[in-house]
Hints:
Elements (H helix, E strand, L loop, with lengths): L4 E6 L3 H12 L3 E6 L11 E4 L2 E4 L12 H9 L3 E5 L2 E5 L2 E4 L4 H8 L1 H18 L9 H9 L1 H16 L7 H7 L5 H8 L13 E5 L5 H12 L3 E3 L2 E9 L2 E9 L2 E6 L2 E4 L3 H9 L4 H8 L2 E12 L9 E3 L9 E4 L13 E9 L4 H4 L2 H14 L8 E15 L4 H12 L5 E3 L11 H16 L4 H12 L7
Parallel strand pairs: 1-2, 1-13, 2-9, 6-15, 13-19
Antiparallel strand pairs: 3-4, 5-8, 6-7, 10-11, 11-12, 14-17, 14-18, 15-16, 16-17
Helix pairs in contact: 1-9, 1-15, 3-4, 4-5, 5-6, 5-7, 10-11, 11-14, 15-16
Amino acid sequence: MTDKQNIVVLGAGVGGLAAGYFLARTGKYEVTVLEKESVIGGLCASFEHDGFTLDYGAHKLYSVIPGVLDEVRDLMGEQLLTLPKKNRLFLRGHLVDYPLKLGNIASVLGPLTFLQLGFGYGIELLTGFFKRQPAGSYEEYIIRRFGRPTYELVFEPLADKVWGDPATLHPEMARTRVPASGGLEIILKLLGLKKETAETNAEFFYYPRGGFGDWPGALAKGIEELGGRIITNANVTSFQMSDNDIRAVEAEVDGKAQTFPVDHVVSSIPLPLIGRLVFGDADPEFNQAVEGLQFRHLILAYIFVERDLALEDQWIFFPEKNVVFSRIFEQKQMNPELGPANRTVINADFTTTEDNPLWQGSDEEVVKEVVDGLVSSGFIKPEEVSGSLVLRRRNFYPRYDLDYANKMQTVSDKLRTVPNLLTTGRIGMYNYNNSDHCADMGRFIADHLAAGEHPPEIWKALEQRVADYKIVD
Ligand SMILES: Cc1cc2nc3c(=O)[nH]c(=O)nc-3n(C[C@H](O)[C@H](O)[C@H](O)COP(=O)(O)OP(=O)(O)OC[C@H]3O[C@@H](n4cnc5c(N)ncnc54)[C@H](O)[C@@H]3O)c2cc1C
């Protein structure tokens, strides 16, 4: 017999595993993590293919949240490589520094572009003094900070590729994804007169020696060492409810129905799914709000190349529309031991909508587009390509439209009526975040629950906390 409370965590990505780990560490809970796939790690997992250890797109471990990297170091210690960050933008056939520097733009893209961009910054700096209203969209937010010419050259096409029309994106998308100071400080940084800070640019980051998947692996090991359990092939199918309380979680484990009694549930599975599990079709207003949250699908194309290394950067962004991908990443730049000598793999990632011809199309069509883009940009030669792999993930990128905050308000107000439910993670919280933020959420939930606070209060405080998260490139 134990006097510990039962917590079931739904999903074993970093969101679920971090919650499970920090909850188990309090010593107050019996933690069970249920994962529908046969492997843990979610989008932060690594997998083996054709002699390589591969990640699901470029993943680095970095954080500006106090204490998070300390936790990572405590858990992973010797497993971590410390890498200086090397990433750039590919523009007009050239590699350009990112964050942008006007001096670098002048030398790479020429004095005319330098003057255009500099003039745009100047105009915004001067007119900014008269703009009292907060920016109403992604477009306005970026133009006010960087000026229209830079917006049109870099941010507009990149945002359009990743999320679709930036004029219809909430400014929160820009605040989270493009950490930037304001006014004069931006100008000083652009002129190279002030250095970027750790808040706006990661000069170094951690990478687990054996692949990014070692990070969720370390959290899972921690859970098990603390007496918790992780059950894979466990697809959560329904809840047993008593009034608004969740009394038990029902899951198909290896195809057999199993019941897990709970005191609390922490969910990292998609927010629309948790909504359906709790309320079914009972509340049309809630359903309309949760179904109205927008997502983009993710396509990852891995191109195997007969060369030791193909890039000089770990990853490169491609704002322009002449290529289909928005970023390429070379796994062996993280650790050359993750693949054989004399061969490399370039991973291209991009997002689409359901009706996009490439989402609907065959893997061969995706590979052709990506290889054409890599060849036309001069990174590889067609005869060097020796293989490919295409992976697709439906609804993996939260897209904050202009009305998303209202929809989220309806969704979280309703879900908070369940007194023993908390959500966490990227799709679980519908929050555009990285794995360090997932770790922070898990730690926050565990600390506050163990201190005796009620989930609806914790949820409210967590929403305020995540509103400040920033993704730092
Ligand atoms: C291209 C790309 C690059 C990125 N780069 C970085 C980076 O550099 N650094 C960084 O830290 N982060 C990065 N991220 C973000 C990072 O991947 C996410 O923040 C993180 O993976 C989110 O973890 P999660 O646990 O919330 O979600 P997920 O990883 O999606 O995990 C959710 C889990 O729930 C499971 N699940 C779903 N439904 C059920 C069900 N019914 N029953 C049981 N289980 C279920 C899923 O199988 C999955 O394992 C990147 C993301 C992308 C797409």
